[in-house]
Amino acid sequence: MAKVVANNLVVDYPIYGTNSRSFKNAFIRTATGGLLARNANEQVVVRALNGVTFELGEGDRVGIVGHNGSGKSTLLRVIVGAYEPVSGSISVAGKVSSMLSISLGMEPEATGYENIFLRGVLMGLKPREIEALADGIISFSELGDYIEMPVRTYSSGMAMRLAFAISTSISADIILMDEWLSVGDASFSEKAQQRLQAVLDQAKILVIASHNEELIRKNCNKIMRLDHGELVSFQQLYA
Amino acid sequence: MSSTTRLQAALSDLKEGVCSIYIWPVLGWQEVKQRYRRSTLGPFWLTLSTGAMIGAMGPLYGRLLGQDVASYFLYLATSFIIWLFISGLVTESCQAFISAEGYIKQSKLPLTVHVLRVIWKNLIFFAHNMVIVVIVMLAYPPPALSLVWLFPVGIALIMVNGLWCGLLLGLLCARFRDIPQIVTSLMQVAMFLTPIFWKADMLGKHQWAATWNPIFHFLEVARAPLLGVAAGAQSWLVVFAVTILGSLVTLVFFTRFRARIAYWV
């Protein structure tokens, strides 16, 4: 049963200046009762999410829209579990696949083949499971013999193709995406979209943040509007 | 969040981290491999330079300190190599979370994984350096080898302490970015204050200058078995006390601040 329940989420980002990052200043501040190094006291906090409440269930295809800095990416990272909210709660049931940064953990000095394993274990796969998927990933990415070469020798398009092929090689209950993934040249791009669509169709819940409302209307059945960290509206979309 | 749920979250981070046996060895090994790439000798370069240093210092300091060169050589080799392991763990602990920023901000890996990565990497480097110890042991055999089984116990204790040390220092350094420099300087001073190049009993009635230092006791517990002697009861006591105390203090900090680390890195 896939489910995402967010209750009154609040996320604050502390913004540290060089002074407040200094142990020396923090120490002097405590020792002198804040008389010295007064600047170190000023800690700016940015409220990235403010009292966000929603519930997602099976079949939901949610598009998050909002301006830059409205909290879209923060919300996705809270659902992934990277950020824990300052107050409020989030509960996520089901296997989550994050496509927020598909190149995370890729090692330029390692070969393409090694990188399949590096990304694979980070996605929670066991080495044996990765081995089973490896052939499919290699043939889909069309890298051929390049797979035995270090990733630093790849063009950026090739590296993206590999990262994309790995990230879309397993299905999940809940898929999170920050902007629609698109990779490669025209012919590869079409093939990639089909593969992505297939993975997304299998997912029970999809959450995607995007600036492209048209794309969201095409692929989603619900739309969530964020503004300055607040949930302005959460509506059903009708085709 | 109540403190009980915080504690549960901290403990489950530890448990899940340790159980992620497909992740931290791969990440740690990856860093070692980095050294092997485009270099035939890889980490053995470190071994070579450490070996050269010990080879040059052994006879020199042995004479300077009026020691029997045979026994001093082995003492120096074991001490220095275990010291490198300990100081590597401590100084790299400071970067454990900072260097894993991408992972921490984008995914839900247990934070413990990043500390275990540091420990694993240092253990592999340590294993490379052990080649030197083995060579010296063959050249100058210790009087007895019956206690050698205690050596892995000592190393395991150092690693357990590396875990709390990594969590605590990693956390503090993520928040206060000048702590890594402080730690690095302290470790440099500690190298000279700890009996590595010299022996504690050379201090005569001033042996307290060595025994107050917890690092001395960790060294003792791991190196004594290789030198064919038993580590003193005091050393075992200090090591166990530090292990328990350090773990408790770390648990308090990790419970309280674990969730903040993602915002700090």
Number of DSSP strands of chain B?
A: 0
Order of helices and strands of chain B: HHHHHHHHHHHH
Let me know the average pLDDT of chain A.
89
Please name the fourth-level CATH homologous superfamily of the largest domain in chain A: P-loop containing nucleotide triphosphate hydrolases
Percent of sequence in beta strands of chain B = under 5%
Class computed from helices, strands and strand pairing of chain B: mainly alpha
List keywords for this structure.
heterodimer; A: 239 residues; alpha/beta; Rossmann fold; 2 domains; 6-stranded mixed sheet; 3-stranded antiparallel sheet; 9 strands; 33% helix; globular; B: 265 residues; mainly alpha; 12 helices; 75% helix
What does this structure look like?
Chain A is α/β, with parallel strands linked by helices and 239 residues long. Helices cover 33% and strands 27% of the residues of chain A. Chain A folds into 2 domains: 3-94 and 224-233, P-loop containing nucleotide triphosphate hydrolases (Rossmann fold), CATH 3.40.50.300; 99-203, Rossmann fold (3-Layer(aba) Sandwich). In chain A, the strands form 2 sheets. A 6-stranded mixed β-sheet of chain A has the order 5-6-7-3-8-9, sandwiched between helices. Chain A has a 3-stranded antiparallel β-sheet with strand order 2-1-4. The two termini of chain A are 26 Å apart. Chain B has 265 residues and is mostly helical. Chain B has one domain (3-264). In chain B, 75% of the residues lie in helices and 0% in strands. Chain B contains 12 helices and no strands. The interface between A and B is medium-sized, with 32 and 26 residues.
What's the quick description here?
The complex is a heterodimer of chains A (239) and B (265). With 239 residues, chain A is of the alpha/beta class.
Helices and strands, with pairings:
The complex is a heterodimer of chains A (239) and B (265).
Chain A: E1 3-15, H1 23-31, E2 44-56, E3 61-65, H2 72-80, E4 87-93, E5 96-99, H3 112-122, H4 127-141, H5 156-167, E6 174-178, H6 186-202, E7 205-209, H7 213-219, E8 222-227, E9 230-236
Parallel strand pairs in A: 3-7, 3-8, 5-6, 6-7
Antiparallel strand pairs in A: 1-2, 1-4, 8-9
Chain B: H1 3-19, H2 24-36, H3 44-64, H4 69-93, H5 101-106, H6 112-139, H7 150-175, H8 179-193, H9 208-211, H10 214-227, H11 233-257, H12 261-264
